[in-house]
């Protein structure tokens, strides 16, 4: 019996996709990577996934897990060998349990993030993970890449929101670790090994996640700033003035927001006069447990003090839910505007907050010296030090610009390293950055990672060619 027939027996003939039916799952979201596979398999349970993995182990077939296929580093796309099986988790899409007394929700890995948010809201709770792809990304993918998003400042990354996991190991066994415990000091933290491993150690099939009380009110404001130093000062003031109520602090350059309003005329900047020429803008949001009036009062006090101190040039505080959505829409439209401008060279980096202004100034200078006229498309989550430091082609030189990626990566990533930062903050490593890790991780770190990979996936079938080079294992 051939392997496809075995897989059909496990998951059903209609859930083993080959040929043209599999093509939609073989190219990553950005269109940068296209691979080949023997088949795309859609199991309906962790037990079926375990049987699929055991079959692949028996036939020495690579396994590539995939959720919503919204990743930005090619982590869920097979290589061009054509021997892999893509394991699609979208049929595992059930909310298994909501425990409001324990403030947890247990869901299968194929659940869409937005569906988890909505299920929590129906139970009167908040699941705070929030990112642009929340309408299509899955919880399994969020955990596999340790996704961040816009509320990391208050609630942490995906890793911080997960209490327990169910995982199919590289041996085809099922680890039942769906414990909703805040404290469990009984040995090595297996959960955190799998979170952020991008499917290279096993397949996350379900998770028990933290819930929080729904805020009574939210308040949002857009601030106009002279420079990044002013934004960092405002962040410190906001942390002191709002405490744990501060849930978002996003930084955006003038170029980013001008691009949004130029390409999408229905979106408007809420400022007039000189504030339209401010070099930088910050989007703040607080969540309040008392009332909308209380939230606004606190906002006006803290922002007013910042204006008096000269840290903020102007501010617009949302007067309604719709105005708040409009402000966030400006921020969330930046990647769409980038796509309209033309493909740029993207970076997802993290820098100590105290050094971000210096990093941007220095790196901009280095890039202009080597690549005159490049556009700096800079935005990100200032509250947790995560910048999307993207580089656009000089005007009129868009053709062939992506061929300079290696050179530009070297300049930017060397600068990130010099500032004690990381070349991947929330997007993962995937195929895109695996060859770069030896340049920025110590020999000890890489050795430990290889040892973990060899122990948990001794046959090297789990998502090969991602995170760590297979030749190094």
From TrEMBL:
Q: Carries keyword Flavoprotein?
A: yes
Q: Which cofactor does it need?
A: FAD
Per UniProt, the keywords (alphabetical) are: FAD, Flavoprotein
Q: Where is the FAD-binding PCMH-type domain?
A: 33-214
Which Pfam families does the record associate with it? Answer: FAD-oxidase_C (PF02913), FAD_binding_4 (PF01565)
* Entries under PROSITE patterns matching the protein: FAD_PCMH
Question: What InterPro entries is this protein classified in?
Answer: FAD-bd_oxidored_4_C, FAD-bd_PCMH, FAD-bd_PCMH-like_sf, FAD-bd_PCMH_sub1, FAD-bd_PCMH_sub2, FAD-linked_Oxase-like_C, FAD-oxidored/transferase_4, Oxid_FAD_bind_N
* A single GO molecular function term of this UniProt record: FAD binding
Kindly indicate whether the keyword Aminoacyl-tRNA synthetase belongs to this entry: no
Q: Name one GO biological process term.
A: respiratory electron transport chain
Looking up PANTHER family in the UniProt record yields: BLL6224 PROTEIN, D-2-HYDROXYGLUTARATE DEHYDROGENASE, MITOCHONDRIAL
Similarity comment? Belongs to the FAD-binding oxidoreductase/transferase type 4 family.
In Swiss-Prot or TrEMBL terms, this protein is called Oxidoreductase
Identify the species of origin.
Advenella faeciporci
């Amino acid at each position: 019996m051939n392997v496809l027939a075995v897989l059909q027996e496990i998951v059903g003939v209609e859930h083993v996709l080959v040929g043209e039916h599999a093509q939609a799952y073989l190219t990553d979201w950005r269109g940068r990577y296209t691979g080949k596979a023997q088949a795309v398999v859609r199991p309906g349970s962790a037990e079926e996934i375990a049987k699929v993995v055991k079959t692949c182990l028996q036939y020495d077939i690579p396994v590539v897990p995939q959720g919503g296929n919204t990743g930005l580093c090619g982590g869920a796309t097979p290589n061009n060998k054509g021997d892999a099986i893509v394991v699609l988790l979208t049929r595992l899409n059930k909310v298994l349990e909501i425990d409001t007394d324990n403030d947890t929700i247990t869901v299968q890995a194929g659940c869409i993030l937005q569906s988890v948010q909505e299920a929590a809201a129906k139970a009167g709770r908040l699941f705070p993970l929030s990112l642009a792809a929340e309408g299509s990304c899955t919880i399994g993918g969020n955990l596999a890449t340790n996704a961040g998003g816009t509320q990391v400042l208050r609630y942490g990354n995906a890793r911080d929101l997960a209490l327990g996991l169910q995982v199919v190991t590289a041996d085809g066994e099922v680890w039942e670790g769906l414990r909703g415990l805040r404290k469990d000091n009984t040995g090595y933290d297996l959960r955190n090994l799998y979170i952020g491993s991008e499917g290279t150690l096993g397949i996350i099939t379900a998770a028990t996640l933290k819930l929080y009380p729904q805020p009574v009110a939210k308040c949002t404001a857009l601030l106009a700033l002279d420079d990044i130093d002013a934004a960092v000062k405002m962040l410190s003031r906001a942390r002191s003035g709002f405490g744990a109520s501060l849930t978002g602090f996003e930084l955006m350059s003038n170029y980013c927001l001008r691009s949004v309003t130029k390409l999408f005329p229905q979106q408007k900047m809420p400022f007039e006069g000189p504030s339209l020429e401010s070099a930088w803008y910050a989007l703040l949001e607080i969540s309040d447990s008392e009332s909308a009036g209380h939230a606004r009062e606190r906002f006006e006090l803290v922002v007013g003090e910042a204006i008096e101190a000269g840290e903020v040039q102007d501010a617009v505080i949302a007067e309604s839910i719709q105005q708040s959505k409009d402000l966030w829409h400006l921020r969330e439209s930046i990647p769409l505007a980038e796509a309209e401008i033309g493909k740029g060279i993207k970076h997802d980096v993290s820098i100590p907050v105290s050094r971000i202004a210096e990093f941007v100034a220095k790196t901009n200078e280095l890039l202009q010296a080597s690549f005159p006229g490049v556009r700096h498309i800079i935005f990100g989550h200032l509250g947790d030090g995560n910048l999307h430091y993207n580089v656009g082609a000089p005007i009129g030189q868009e053709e062939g610009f992506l061929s300079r990626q290696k050179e530009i990566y070297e300049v930017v990533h060397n600068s990130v390293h010099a500032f004690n930062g990381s070349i991947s903050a929330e997007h993962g490593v995937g195929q895109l950055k695996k060859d770069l890790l030896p340049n920025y991780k110590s020999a000890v770190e890489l050795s430990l990672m290889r040892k973990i990979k060899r122990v948990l996936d001794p046959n090297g079938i789990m998502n090969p060619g991602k995170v760590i080079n297979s030749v190094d294992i």
